[in-house]
Amino acid sequence: MGFIENNQATQNHDEPWVTPETLIDVAHSIDADINLDVLATDMINQTYLNQVQQDMALVDTYNVSQTPSIMVDNIKLDDPFDYEQIKRAIEQKLEER
């Protein structure tokens, strides 16, 4: 049984289940070049907490509902994958300056 199947079968959905230990297990189970000791230390020490809090503040401020999201001059574009929309929005803002 794989990590996801095992986790779904054993987790209690009423309690937090994403812990440093489960994240280390996930990192260990995938084929990636991850230093598990550094990962564990960073999670325990909350090394990136300030950056995460800043990102969460931006999510609230700009009503971000998906990633990626594209903002042009503080305006969220409807489709972050529509190159023409992105290009038009940038060109429009440049013309306004």
Automatic annotation (TrEMBL):
UniProt-listed Gene3D superfamilies: Glutaredoxin
Cited Pfam families: Thioredoxin_4 (PF13462)
Origin: domain of life: Bacteria
InterPro entries listed in its UniProt record: Thioredoxin-like_fold, Thioredoxin-like_sf
Stretches assigned to the Thioredoxin-like fold domain: 10-91
Family matches, as SUPFAM superfamilies: Thioredoxin-like (SSF52833)
Protein's name in the database: DsbA family protein
